[in-house]
Design a protein that fits this description.
- This protein has helices spanning 25-33, 47-61, 74-79, 82-95, 107-112, 116-125, 147-162, 182-194, 227-232, 244-258, 270-285, 291-311, 322-334, 352-359, 375-384, 396-402, 427-449, and strands spanning 39-44, 68-69, 100-105, 134-138, 173-177, 199-201, 238-242, 262-265, 315-319, 338-343, 368-370, 389-392, 407-409.
- It has 459 residues and is α/β, with parallel strands linked by helices.
- It has a 5-stranded parallel beta sheet, with helices on both faces. Strands 2-1-3-4 form a 4-stranded parallel beta sheet, with helices on both faces. The protein has a 4-stranded parallel beta sheet with strand order 6-5-7-8, sandwiched between helices.
- Helix 2 (47-61) links the parallel strand 1 (39-44) and strand 2 (68-69).
- Helix 1 (25-33) packs across helix 2 and helix 13 runs parallel beside helix 14.
- The radius of gyration is 23 Å and the shape is globular.
- The protein binds iron/sulfur cluster.
- Iron/sulfur cluster binds at residues 24, 26, 49, 52, 106-107, 142.
Length: 459
């Protein structure tokens, strides 16, 4: 067993993380940048960082992720990366012709202290940025934060660089999804459209990282938010940010910059948080909730009531990103499950732990929450007091295997399964999919462990 060194004795650790429950900031920035149409993300640092960021996204989405790098060597590491970035901007616009280059930094360029706006100004002064093209940036030092911080920073950069008031309020609303799948973004937009709302979603990776195989190479896929749409966000009638950690900063920046009022909600995972999302859309649109959404909600409620007995009292360990963990925990509690261990490696803001504690207030016994924590600690908790189910990214498979625990993949990254790019966990339909996944894991285990006498055809 790969993790049989995990001990049951828990010692206080302050300066050591083992099996972190997060990845690095630039990965989130690169993912967000891919949600702009015609954008080439650019990693300002060494080729090693860039290869890691690209390969993690490529492995998760099973799509070739296009990006560029400043390719630091010893010289840039000592003297700074200005020459590399100016040269890169020139090469990228000449060879790859994107509409926008989205530069994010790395630990190395942040430690050197490269001033990206100053370098971009120099590139502009040198005539390296063609008319009508853009270079934006976000600082993403990975020794603070995680991939969700990088995502939030790059999403806010879209507001800082592009959003503007055109003097007229449009009827459209802005939808700012957190770090979720392309399938989730499509589902969120579908619900808003069903509610009769015109929306601008940013970033939007649907049809970018879950597009079709057509046999023709396209450097810039069909999807993504266009520059024109990003500019229009400043004239929208309101914004909904989904997930405080990933979407809160951009939603508030838009309010501050262009006076677009915002509401920041939980991600619409599960019954209650989807209800809140739909109710917010309903109030913005001023129309009744259409039958189609009523039907989807009713189907989810029906499935929960039909299968509730298999969820009741099940102890669950959760690993993931803060925004997702909060909504997921609220859904599991609504199913009468018991999320007893909750771990994220990401910093989550001062209200997150309190919100989680409120969500699990009625769960019997003590719920252990580590913010930030690591997966070694989670495994130790499990070894001391087992759980019935573990949910989290691909790295949970080692714990699941070591302790023979039913396991549902959820979150980022998922490197060893497909489906997440195409089938959403958001909204009522996503809730139904989640119920199916949970039941499959629990009932497959029940079938496996049943004696011949208890083994039932019909459950
Ligand atoms: S050095 Fe920093 S930016 Fe580069 S891969 Fe490691 S954590 Fe990420």
């Amino acid at each position: 067993m790969l993790l049989n060194h995990t001990t049951t004795e828990i010692k206080e650790r302050t300066a050591l993380t083992v099996n972190p429950a997060k990845t690095c900031q630039p990965i989130g920035a690169m993912y967000a940048a891919l949600g702009i149409h015609g954008c080439l993300p650019h990693s300002h640092g060494s080729q090693g960082c860039y290869a890691y960021h690209r390969s993690t996204l490529t492995r998760h989405f099973k799509e070739p992720v296009m990006a560029a790098t400043s390719a630091f060597t010893e010289g840039a590491s000592v003297f700074g990366g200005q020459a590399n970035l100016v040269q890169a901007i020139d090469n990228i616009f000449t060879v790859y012709d994107p509409d926008v280059i989205a530069v994010h930094t790395t630990c190395l360029s942040e430690t050197i202290g490269d001033d990206i706006p100053q370098i971009v100004n120099k590139a502009e002064a040198d005539g390296k940025i063609p008319a009508g093209k853009y270079v934006i940036h976000a600082n993403t030092p990975s020794y603070v934060g995680s991939h969700v911080t990088g995502y939030a920073n790059m999403t806010k950069a879209m507001v800082d660089y592009f959003s503007e008031k055109n003097g007229h309020k449009s009827a459209a609303i802005n939808l700012i999804p957190g770090f979720v799948e392309p399938s989730d973004m499509a589902e969120i937009r579908r619900l808003a459209t069903l509610m009769g709302l015109k929306s601008i979603m940013f970033p939007d990776t649907s049809k970018v990282l879950n597009g079709p195989l057509t046999g023709k190479f396209k450097m810039y896929p069909e999807g993504g938010t266009t520059i024109a749409q990003l500019k229009e966000t400043g004239s929208s009638s309101g914004s909904i940010g989904l997930g405080e950690v990933c979407a809160g900063a951009a939603a508030r920046a838009l309010d501050a910059k262009c006076k677009v009022p915002c509401q920041v909600l939980n991600l619409p995972i599960g019954l209650h948080d989807t209800d809140i999302f739909i109710d917010t859309l309903h109030r913005m649109a001023g129309i009744s909730v259409p039958e189609e959404i009523d039907l989807e909600r009713g189907q989810l409620v029906d499935a929960i009531s039909d299968w509730h007995q298999y969820f009741y009292g099940k102890r669950v360990a959760l690993v993931g990103d803060p925004d997702q963990l909060l909504s997921l925990t609220r859904f599991l509690v609504a199913l009468d499950m018991q999320p007893v261990y909750i771990v994220t490696g990401s910093p989550a803001g001062k209200n997150f732990k309190a919100a989680l504690e409120e969500a699990v207030a009625d769960v019997p016994g003590k719920v252990k929450i580590a913010v930030p924590g690591d997966m070694f600690l989670l495994h130790q908790w499990i070894k001391n007091e087992p759980v019935d189910l573990i949910m989290g990214n691909t790295y949970c498979k080692y714990i699941a295997r070591d302790d023979d625990i039913p396991y549902v993949r959820f979150g980022f990254p998922i490197l060893d399964r497909m489906g997440h790019s195409y089938f959403s966990f958001m909204g009522y339909r996503g809730g139904l999919r989640l119920v199916e996944k949970l039941l499959d894991a629990l009932l497959d285990r029940k079938d496996r462990d049943s004696s011949d006498i208890e083994f039932e055809l019909v459950l």
